[in-house]
Amino acid sequence: MTGLSDSFQRPINYLRISVTDRCNLRCVYCMPEEGVSLMAHRDILTYEEIYTVAKVAAGLGITKIRLTGGEPLVRLGLPDLVKMLAGIETIDDISMTTNGVLLAQHAAALKKAGLRRGNVSLDTLKPERFNRITRCGTLEDTLAGIEAARSARLDPVKMNMVVMAGVNDDELPDFAAKTITAGWHVRFIEHMPVSGSGDIKLVSVGEMKKRIESLGSLEPSRLDVGNGPARYFRFPGAAGTIGFITPVTEHFCYQCNRLRLTADGKLRPCLLCEDEIDIRETLRSGTSPDELKSLIEKAIACKPQGHRLAEGSGRQGRPFSQVGG
Ligand code: SAM
Ligand code: SF4
């Protein structure tokens, strides 16, 4: 293994794999109400194909994998994929981002298969509001998923809240309080104005902090497990942490260590830039690992220095549910 880095000397060791573009929710910040056009089943990579890409990527220096979607748990047999990936010797961390709806059913099997930890998207603690934001979900299901993930020791389970002005920002203190009362690890994420993400107003981190500090002062903290760009804090003595993820106002492209694989077999060097390299056809034409290896290297070489979301560049292109937000 050599270790990968891109043209800006950023080490690349993290592969985010979108296993499906399907989702059982329709969150207002992610998808239009009518949904988005779906990939044909034959265009979606099989688990064997995903495994082949992951194995070659691991040989190049990828050590961490996150499964995402769409909603990863709507794809049947996900623990089988986790088990295959966990069998790759140099992969030391497999995680998943999920809306949690189906997590109670699958948490134990995922843990047994080798999933190490999970992030659960949760934007409100109010049942009716949950139904409004997700357009069809039930809060109880996601809360049950969180409890199951915690019982299965998918540690740390992190709750991701997309903060939206006038929609759920009044709940910032309620989420922050959960770090004290329930030991939750909560991360507040700036809303990104991308394709299908609705007309939503961002809340700045300064404003978020001000509202949270109505409960007490925050001190800088660390959450040891993770590959992400969050900055962590905690209330003195709290078991849980509070993270802020600021892709728009203080982007973290300079430390980006990620490569993405979309469900339909494209390598995507950046979530927010539309350039992609197709590997599905190469995979299906009985390619050699060397050909795959050079496509992965090519994708990393194309990684842009940064996105231009703040200048309004994100509205065109594929929605997050297709490229794995
Ligand atoms: N369905 C899974 C879930 O919701 O966790 C995984 C896929 S979802 C696209 C991945 C993450 O992207 C979620 O945490 C979601 O909150 C986030 N996301 C989607 N649209 C977003 C937007 N416009 N701005 C910020 N985050 C967004
Ligand atoms: Fe589905 Fe996740 Fe997008 Fe919500 S954020 S619509 S759960 S893919």
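^ iron/sulfur cluster complex. The chain has one domain: 14-323. The pocket of iron/sulfur cluster (ligand 2) is lined by residues 23, 25-27, 30-31, 69-71, 99, 121, 321 (CB under 6 Å).
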